[in-house]
Amino acid sequence: MQVRTGDMPLARAARMRTHWRAAALAAILAHAWLPPGVASAQPAQALEQPLSFDMAPQPLGQALIELNRRTALSIAFDPRQVEHFQAPAIRGVMTSEQALRQALSGSNLAYSLRGQVATVRQQEVAQLMPVTVSGDNLPAYIADTPTSIATKTSLPPRQTPFTINQASQELIMERGDANIYDTLEGFAGVTTTSGNGDIGQSMSRSINVRGFSTGGAGQLLINGQRTYSSASAARSPDSLERVELLRGPAALYYGAAEPGGIVNYTYKRPQAQAAYTIVGRTDSKGSYGSMVDMTGPLNQDDTLLYRLVGSYTHTVDDQDHIFQEPKSVLAALTYAPNSRFDTTLTYERMEMEAVPEQENNMRISNRNSPYYGQYYPVPRDFFWGSLNDRAVTETDTLLWDARWRPSERFNLNAYANYQESKQWWQNTRVNGAGNGPDADGNVQRYVSGRQARDRNWSFGLDLSGKAYTGAFRHDWLTGAGYGHTQTRSSGRQVAADSRPGQPYTPGPLNIFDPDYGNWHYQDRIWEDPLAAATKRNDLNLYFQDMLHLPDEKTRLLLAMGWAQFDSRPPDNAQRNKISKWSPRIALMHDLTPSTTVYASYGESFYPNELNLLDMSGSYITKPQEGKQYEIGFKQDLFDSRAMLTAALFRIDKKNMPMSAQPDGQCDPLAAPAPGTPGTTDGSGDCRTSLSGLERSQGLELELSGLITDWWAASLSYAYLKTEYVDTEDPFSQGRSKPNMPAHNLALWNKFRVYQDPVYGTAHVAVGLRAWSKSHNAWRDPAVGTYYNPYSRTDYNPGYGIVDVGVFYANTLANGMDLKLQLNIKNLFNKTYYDRNRFANGTTIVWGNERRAMLNAQLSF
C-alpha cells in the first residue's frame, strides 16, 4: 500500500514544503540545548487527514495490520473473529476511519473508536454507530491503549485481568504535569515522598504503589523492556507517548521486584503520516522551555519512518536559587517492509541539571537555644546551600525491538537495550541542625558530594501464537530475558572533616544576613577514584497460556516464570544468588459484551540486604516474598467511549527481617561474626530472622474517557489500608505503615464551552488531587518527642489541591493548527507539605505554591 496526499504535482509541491519545514525544524532542534521550544504530535488531527490508499483485496486480518501500521489508528481485534473474512480493495482518498469502515464492509464486524484506538467487535457488541473523535472534539483520555506490560501480549487494559493505569501524552500536557512525579501522582493510590539522600528530593523521590515502594531493583520498563534506571529518578515527560503503571506483582516477566507495581515509559515512535509540532512554554515563576516533535516517512513507499524530538526546560522553584533543567533529544527509525515485520531503533540522550533541594526548615532541639522546639526563623523560600551546588545526571539510552508476525499461530518479538549513566552531586547542608543558630545567627554547614557511573543492558525474546484443541483456543507465550547492570561510585563522600587536616567546610551561613557564594573545593568530588563495580545479573524464563473456553466468554490465564537474581559486590564475599519460581493465575468472564469480571493471583520476590546473619552464622539469602489476590470489574460505558474499572486487592509481603534475639541478648556494636553461631548472653553480634509480615489491601476505582460529546474526564479514587502484621517494633505492631494516606482522589475534567468553524474551539478544565492525613514512624507513646511528648507519631494533615485550565484551538489561514493553553496549579494557593517531612515533625519540605503556566503549540 502507498499512502500519498493529492496527485503527483501536488505531492511534489507538498514534499517541497515538507522538506523546507523539516529543515527549519531541524535547525530549531539543533538548538534544543538552548532556552526555548516544546512539541507533541496531535493524533486527533492525524485521524482527520485525507490519505490516498491503494490496497488490494486481502484477508481481513492482514488488512487491519496494514491499516494499523499506515495510519494513526491503533486497531485492536481478535484474530479468530476476522480469520474467515476477506477485506475488499481500498482505493482512493479518504480518512483513516473511512478506510477502516471499508475494510470491515464485507464482514459482520463493527468497531468502536476511542481516541486513536479502534476496537473491532461483533455487530451485536458494537450496538451503536462508531463514535468519531474529531480535532474539534475532546481528547479521549480513555486508559485503554493496547499494551504488553501485563501479559506480554498486546491487549487493551479492558481485556486484561489486572489493573493498568495509563496517562497519554495529551493528558500529561493538558494537566500541566511538570515532571514524572506529577504524572504518577495523577493515578489515585500512587504517592511520592522525599528522602534524605544528598542528591535532593527534586531529583529522586520514593514512589509508593499499593502500600509498597517501587524500590531500587530496576523496576522501570521502557517500551516494555527491563532497564535498570529508576522510576523514582526525575525526568521530563516530553519524549514519552504515555506512562503506564501495572499494579501488583510482575516477577513472572521481570524478575526481582516489589509487589506493589511496576512503571513503564513508552517512548514516542515513528508514524507514517508526516506531522510537525512546536510548543513553547513559560510560567509565573520565570520558568521557560520548548519542545520540537517531527515524524513521517523517509522514502516513497513509507517503509522507512522517523521520529525526532528535542526538549529543553528551565523550571524555577519556589525556593530561592533552586532550579531544575532537563534537556533531551530522542531519535527513532522504524523499518516496516510489510505488514508482517517491523523493527525500530530508538536513541535518547537525557541530561538533568538541578540544585539539590533538601529540607527547607528544621526544628531546633537544643534546650539552650531561644528557639527551642521551634523551626528556624527564616522565610519560606530560604536557601541553605552554596550557589554552585548541583545534582547532574547524563543518560544515554539505546533500544531496539523487532516484531515478526508470519501468521496468527506464530509471532516473534525480540528486543534489546543498552544504557549508560553518569551522575555527580554537591550539596551544602546544615551541620547539626538541631543546635540552632548562635547568638549572631550563624549556622554551621557541611558539603557532601559524590560521583557515580552506571552501565547496563538487557535483551530478550518472546514467542507467541494461537493454537486450538477442539473448541478451545490457546493464546500461548514463552519467552526469556537477561539483564546486567554494574554500578561504580567514589569511595567516600567529600564532607566536613572527612579528611583530617584539610578544611573543606564551606563556612557558616548567617540566617539574618545570608551571604551566599560558591564552595571552592568542587574538584575534590572527582579526586577520589571510582570504586570497583557492584554487579547484578537477572535471568528470566516464562511460560503462559490464555485458554479461551468454547462459550467465548470465559478465559483462564495460567503462567509460570523462573527468575534468577545474582548480586555480586566488588569483593564477592557476600554474593547473593537467588532462584525463584513465580506463578500467575487469572480467570476472566464477560458478563456482557461490554462487561468483564476477573480474579487473579500473582507472586513477587525481592532480595534482602546482603549483610544479614542468621543464628547459625550464615548470610541470609532468602528473599522477601509478595503474594497478591485481586478481583475486579471492567465496564465499557457511554457507547464504548469511556471505561469504568474497579479492583479489590490484598498483598502480603513475608520474610521481612526481624531481630532474632530479644532486647539485651546481643550487642549492636559488636562486629559481625559470619560462620559463628549467635549468642543470647548479650556479648555477641545481633542476628536476624525472616519472620516479619507486612500487608496492604484496598479498593481502586477509575473512570476515564468521553462522558458526553462535551465532557472528557480522568477520574480515580483509591482506598488503602496497610498493616505491620508481624514486626520486631512493638510500637508499630498491628499499625499502619508511615507516609501512606488511606484515601486519595485524582480528578481531571475537561469541558467544551465554545465551538465555531471560523473562530475556533474553547475548553475549560478543572482538576482535584486530594489525600487524607498520613503519619511518620510509630514511637513509644510513654516518651514521645521533645516537641510533642507522650505522642505515638506525628501526623501530616490531609489536603486537596485544585488545578484549572483554559484551552483555545483554531486552524489558521495557512492550514496550521494553533493551540493556546493556560493552567493555574494550586489555584487557592493551599499550604501543604511533603508526606515525609511536614510541619508537625522535625523537618519541613514545602509543597508547591500557586503557579500560572502558559503554553503555545503550532502543528502542521
What do you see in this structure?
- With 860 residues, the protein is mostly beta strands.
- The chain folds into three domains: 51-122, Phage tail protein beta-alpha-beta fold; 161-267, Ferric Hydroxamate Uptake Protein, Chain A, domain 1; 275-666 and 684-859, Maltoporin, Chain A.
- The protein contains eight helices and 43 strands.
- The longest helix is centred in the first third of the chain and has 23 residues, at 8-30.
- The protein is globular.
Relevant terms:
860 residues, mainly beta, Phage tail protein beta-alpha-beta fold, Ferric Hydroxamate Uptake Protein, Chain A, domain 1, Maltoporin, Chain A, 3 domains, five-stranded mixed sheet, 43 strands, 8% helix, globular, disordered N terminus, tonb box, Plug_dom_sf, transmembrane beta strand, transport, Putative siderophore receptor
What's the structural blueprint in terms of helices and strands?
Blueprint: H1 8-30, H2 43-48, E1 51-55, E2 58-59, H3 60-70, E3 74-76, H4 79-82, E4 86-87, E5 90-94, H5 96-104, E6 109-114, E7 117-122, E8 164-168, H6 169-175, H7 180-184, E9 190-193, E10 206-209, E11 212-213, E12 220-222, E13 225-227, E14 240-247, H8 251-254, E15 261-267, E16 275-283, E17 288-297, E18 304-316, E19 323-338, E20 341-354, E21 361-362, E22 390-407, E23 410-430, E24 442-443, E25 445-469, E26 472-489, E27 509-510, E28 534-548, E29 554-568, E30 576-592, E31 595-606, E32 624-637, E33 642-659, E34 688-708, E35 711-726, E36 743-756, E37 760-771, E38 774-775, E39 795-796, E40 799-811, E41 817-825, E42 843-844, E43 851-859
Parallel strand pairs: 3-7, 12-15
Antiparallel strand pairs: 1-5, 2-4, 6-7, 8-14, 9-10, 10-11, 12-13, 14-15, 16-17, 16-43, 17-18, 18-19, 19-20, 20-22, 21-42, 22-23, 23-25, 24-27, 25-26, 26-28, 28-29, 29-30, 30-31, 31-32, 32-33, 33-34, 34-35, 35-36, 36-37, 37-40, 38-39, 40-41, 41-43
